[in-house]
Design goal:
The complex is a heterodimer. By secondary structure, chain A is α/β, with parallel strands linked by helices. Among the domains of chain A are: 77-304, NagB/RpiA/CoA transferase-like (Rossmann fold), CATH 3.40.50; 422-480, no CATH class. In chain A, 49% of the residues lie in helices and 10% in strands. Chain A has 22 helices and ten strands. In chain A, helix 20 crosses helix 21. In chain A, 52% of the residues are buried. Chain B is built from seven helices and twelve strands. The chains are: A alpha/beta, B alpha/beta. Chains A and B meet through helix 2, helix 3, helix 4, helix 8 and helix 10 of A and helix 1, helix 2, helix 6, helix 7 and strand 9 of B. Strand 9 of chain A pairs antiparallel with strand 9 of chain B.
Chain lengths: 481, 225
């Protein structure tokens, strides 16, 4: 019923979708308003720039340290979790991850799985795969529930339904939720969602969640949330399956507070979320609730490709706060759906190429003015603009010597562009040729075409000056003498 | 080769720069705190109350002697018909003596009475393992005596917090209570009732969990307001 297949859009059609989105006044208004709100809330949490800087340095240090020790920390995490009674699974690809989860769900012959918010489950397109085998994977985060009910994907990683107005949501509920009447009270709308989903928490055999931090020393999965649906999904059903990217592990519990503090403040401008849910094992004998079975699925899906390169590895420092998209002038104008990928905005532009390959995503790193806002607000100091430039380069060229090619390496290579650059280089390294070209271009300026492709869509045509700079300098000199 | 081996092999084959030093979170914390006056019991109580109020949590100051009576009055005022509690918890006897109507022990596995828990339970009472002043946060530590859902499913969550166990920060709490030596199956930080801003960035309380959080803060006689 609710797990209708969603429409997936190829990232390669980004430009057309961006053009449509930019012209959509309603969308522009929703995003501008919401992003301004989040920017202001975040700024209020960091009144002291120097203190923020030192906290970012610490958070970056913790993430870099964890990544440097990633293989051994993953093994330690697995050991600890296994000791605690958790079953750990590894998946190299999205398909493998879905197959593992479907296998677990089918072993319990369930038809319904309730889900807490998990971007990794979106990334592997789990709901799709579950629907194919007849299992209803129901999103229970309010925003995710709303977009799923409407057959859409989230448009923001923290606020999935940010593109919708309450009137649209109310009409959606009135159409699709039995017994719901049209109301424009947000409290009533939340009440409707609450009532529907509480029924589902009660009846579902399997619950699913993501993970914000996995602590190796104690085998603890930390989940950050405000709504309580994550706690429901991980506590009420008999089986809990957690899914996470392999990069989410940290060594010690005490590494969590600095990251957690920056995560919530960067994401929504909250000093802390309502819940930090720390799960270290299934129900023990004598306990009266909690899942009887607990699984963790560790997903690679391209992360080891980013890991293999010391510069690209910093992509994996990300703690998924969404601050980069909130502050991105491109994201704010086109919204999350235009990107066509699970992760939109600047972080999506640098992580999606590893997951989907440059052939499908090479245009994404170009969706940036390189203004630097994303890198400046990133709580773990990922140099996003530098990575965007690097990926643009990888899309246009063969792999650097000594580097393994990325998936889709050189996908945006163009003979025309190569020829233009070769011509430019020839011209600018040979003074005689350069002067001759300049002389010719200035004399033939009347022949400049008035329409110059993309340039003249919103700019006046380029036209050479009447005389070259060399000629004008020579004329000035002769006047002085 | 299994997925596990392949992933670990790829990670191990990646070039590594020099290993960064282990982050010293404690030293960082100490450096940030340097120059500010150390907190006092009074300042921690005041800060906790202020922050918890910000999260829409209600804080009621009580004493060891009067808290069951206060809870009884609160339940009556809020129209609570059934109050769920852990029958093996340390405060079970005090509760029973207070004459609260509709006391309901969480005495069997949830699977046997899920529907009643979800549909016919007005409030739940839990103890806490402490609180965090900086953020107005409760440390809830479910166990055999006080199951996990006690603080989640009933629409009102009453939590008993001893002011002696207020810490300045999350880090202080987990260090001083030596969490790393052993975590329970589930531990929680709770800051206010459940909430969402997913519809048009408008804040609404009572998303999926409790709609109200009432903290019974155990203080000394002279600290009652």
């Amino acid at each position: 019923m609710n797990a209708q297949p969603m429409k997936f859009v190829p990232a390669s059609e980004f430009k057309q979708r961006a053009a449509v989105a930019v012209a959509d006044q309603h969308l522009r208004k929703s995003f501008r308003g919401a992003m301004d709100f989040l920017i202001t809330k975040r700024a209020a949490q960091f009144p002291d720039a120097a203190a923020l800087e030192s906290q970012r340095l610490l958070a970056e240090h913790i993430r870099k340290y964890s990544l440097a020790r990633l293989p051994e920390l993953l093994e330690q995490l697995e050991r600890k979790l296994t000791d605690n009674g958790v079953k750990v699974h590894w998946a190299e690809t999205a398909e493998e991850a879905c197959a593992i989860i479907i296998g677990i769900a089918q072993s319990h012959s369930t038809k319904l799985m309730v889900k807490g918010k998990s971007m990794v489950s979106e990334e592997v397109e789990l709901n799709h795969a579950m629907a194919d085998v007849g299992i209803d994977a129901l999103e229970s985060d309010m925003g995710e529930y709303i977009v799923q009910l409407d057959g859409e994907k989230p448009s923001h990683i923290i606020m999935p339904a940010i593109h919708k107005t309450k009137e649209q949501i109310s009409r959606l509920f009135a159409d699709k939720v039995p017994g719901a009447r049209y109301t424009d009270s947000v409290d009533e709308l939340i009440g409707i969602g609450r009532a529907v989903l509480r029924e589902k928490f009660m009846s579902a055999e399997v619950g699913m969640s993501g993970v914000n931090f996995a602590v190796a020393e104690t085998g603890t999965l930390c989940l950050v949330e405000n709504e309580g649906n994550g706690r429901m999904c991980t506590t009420v059903p008999n089986v809990h399956i957690a899914i996470t990217g392999i990069e989410k592990v940290v060594e010690k519990l005490e590494h969590v507070p600095p990251l957690f503090g920056l995560l919530t403040r960067s994401a929504t401008g909250q000093a802390i979320t309502t819940y930090l849910n720390m799960i270290s094992g299934p129900r023990r004998p004598g306990e009266k609730d909690g899942p009887r079975e607990l699984h963790l699925v560790l997903v690679d899906n391209g992360r080891t490709q980013a890991y293999a390169d010391q510069q690209l590895r910093s992509t994996l420092q990300c703690i998924r706060c969404g601050a980069c998209m909130n502050h991105c002038p491109v994201y704010t104008r086109i919204g999350g759906h235009a990107y066509g990928t699970t992760y939109p905005g600047p972080i999506g532009e640098i992580i999606s190429p590893h997951m989907l390959g440059l052939a499908a995503t090479h245009v994404l790193p170009t969706a940036s003015s390189l203004c630097g806002a994303c890198g400046e607000v990133c709580p773990v100091r990922i140099p996003i603009p530098e990575l965007l430039v690097r990926l643009r380069e990888e899309a246009q060229h063969d792999a650097r010597p000594g580097h393994a090619p990325l998936l889709g390496q050189g996908a945006a290579k163009s003979r025309l562009v190569d020829a233009v650059w070769a011509g430019w280089a020839a011209l600018y390294t040979r003074p005689a040729l350069y002067r001759a070209f300049g002389w010719l271009a200035t004399r033939l300026r009347v022949l400049t075409p008035p329409f110059q492709g993309g340039w003249t869509v919103s700019r006046t045509p380029m036209k050479p000056a009447a005389r070259t700079l060399h000629e004008r300098m020579a004329a000035r000199k002769s006047r002085w003498q | 080769m299994s997925a596990r081996q392949n992933i670990l092999r790829r990670l191990r084959e990646a070039p590594q720069g020099p290993l960064p030093l282990p982050p010293d979170v404690g030293a960082f914390h100490a450096a940030q705190a340097a120059g500010t006056a150390a907190s006092t019991r009074h300042s921690r109580i005041e800060l906790f109350c202020e922050k918890m109020a910000f999260w829409h949590g209600e804080v009621v100051r009580v004493t060891r002697a009067n808290w069951p009576q206060t809870l009884r009055e609160l339940c009556a005022a809020k129209g609570v018909r059934s109050l769920l509690y852990g029958e093996q918890s340390a405060h079970a006897a005090a509760l029973a003596a207070a004459g609260i109507t509709g006391l309901k022990p969480y005495d069997r596995p949830v699977d046997e009475w899920k529907k009643e828990l979800f549909e016919d339970t007005d409030a739940g009472l839990t103890s806490t393992r402490g609180g965090i002043a900086e953020t107005g946060t409760l440390i809830v530590w479910p166990d055999v005596a006080e199951p996990r859902l006690l603080s989640l499913v009933p629409p009102i969550h009453f939590a008993l917090l001893d002011a002696d166990q207020l810490y300045d920060s999350f880090l202080d709490a987990l260090r001083e209570q030596r969490w790393s030596e052993g975590m329970p199956t589930n531990a929680l930080l709770v800051s206010g009732p459940s909430k969402t801003a997913d519809i048009q960035v408008t804040l609404a309380y009572g998303a999926h969990g409790p709609k109200e959080l009432v903290v019974l803060l155990l203080v000394n006689e002279e600290e009652l307001v």
